[in-house]
Specification:
This protein is an alpha/beta fold. The protein has 2 domains: 7-176, Rossmann fold (3-Layer(aba) Sandwich); 219-341, Zinc Finger, Delta Prime, domain 3. The chain contains 15 helices and 5 strands. Strands 2-3-4-1-5 form a 5-stranded parallel beta sheet, with helices on both faces. The radius of gyration is 23 Å and the shape is elongated.
Length: 342
């Protein structure tokens, strides 16, 4: 997957290759769009292409030259990938990842740019997720963005560009990625699945995002979604303690869990407004959603959707006690006034 050419990338790829051919490739690119579209795949493809000694007519790397072999093994001296680093060096018993890209990492990158390229071409750095830049690291990066060395390229990848300082965003050329059509995504996904998995069901559950849908095919995330749905149904029916349920929601990928929650409540409103055949984000959950919908008024459903959206925002954008917020939201599923804090 890391070097695959994804069909919904071709428009952006063609645009950049035209600029490359004209000698107008920017020194900094900000790759944005929803998570699960393969922005980092695109970034790596572009980086390898620029470092390759013999790219083809479409700008793709040859995969045969020495530069390509070094890149594929992660040892190319003119390429640096920067992400939140492992803190285990400070605590040998800890496997916890840092929440930010630190200033020392940016300084190392700036040192790299100061050297003459080993192969006489580009010097490239990939920052992902770029929105994790610590404020001091972002400030340290500004000088390089303002006065980049020749033949250098900085690739910033993020699904949340608004979290980057405006001073950083304004110094980058933005390349936007959007969710592909169902036809394109469905065809690509179907070629990678085996029966009995249904590509469109997975795609619907992933809000049309192909790589997220493919990840569901491994079973673990799909089973987690099913378990959370069943637990939420029990909370609504008063059969499961919200505090215990909140512990389950806070595990694994909280952001993904909350996106599922929002999609369920969106489907509930669709079913309530149009009881007939209604396209859903979660068609496989239609029977359970119908049961939930029948027990709640339209006003109540809209209130719960608003609360789910606020919960997602608070848990993903701000530093909060997520366990407390999850307990409050889930308590409100059965009408408990504790949910008023959301």
């Amino acid at each position: 997957m890391s070097d695959e050419r994804l069909p919904w990338h071709e428009a952006q790829w063609g645009q950049l290759q035209q600029r490359r051919a004209a000698g107008r490739l920017p020194h900094a690119l900000l790759l944005t769009g929803p998570a699960g579209l393969g922005k980092s795949v695109f970034a790596r493809r572009l980086a390898q292409s620029l470092l390759c000694a013999s790219p083809d007519a479409e700008g793709n790397a040859c995969d045969r030259c020495r530069a390509c072999h070094l890149f594929q093994t992660g040892s190319h001296p003119d390429y640096l990938a920067i992400c939140p680093e492992d803190d285990s060096a400070d605590n040998a018993s800890s496997k916890k990842k840092s929440k930010v890209i630190k200033i020392d990492q940016i300084r190392d990158f700036c040192i790299l740019l100061g050297y003459t390229p080993h192969y006489g071409g580009y010097k490239i750095a990939l920052l992902e997720p770029a929105d994790r830049l610590h404020v001091n690291a972002a400030n340290s990066l500004l000088k390089t963005l303002e006065e980049p060395p020749g033949n250098s390229l900085l690739l910033l990848v993020t699904a949340q560009p608004a979290r980057l300082p405006a001073t950083v965003r304004s110094r980058c050329q933005i390349i936007s990625f959007s969710t592909p059509s169902r036809e394109v995504a469905g065809t690509w996904l179907a070629s990678r699945l085996s029966p009995p998995l249904e590509p469109m069901a997975l795609l619907d559950a992933a809000n049309g995002v192909p790589l997220a849908a493919l990840a569901y095919a491994d079973g673990e995330r799909w089973h987690r979604r099913q378990a959370l749905m069943e637990g939420y149904e029990q909370v609504i029916a008063g059969q499961l303690d919200p505090i215990r349920a909140a512990e389950n929601w806070g595990q694994d990928n909280l952001v993904e869990n909350l996106c599922w929650l929002i999609s369920w409540h969106t489907d509930l409103i669709r079913l309530k407004m149009n009881p007939g055949f209604t396209p859903l984000h979660n068609p496989d959950l239609r029977p359970a959603l119908r049961n939930w919908m029948a027990r709640q008024s339209p006003r109540r459903l809209f209130e719960r959707l608003d609360a789910a959206i606020r919960l997602h925002t608070l848990c993903t954008v701000t530093q909060v006690n997520t366990q407390m917020l999850l307990e409050a939201f889930l308590s409100g599923a059965s009408g408990n006034e504790k949910s008023n804090i959301l």
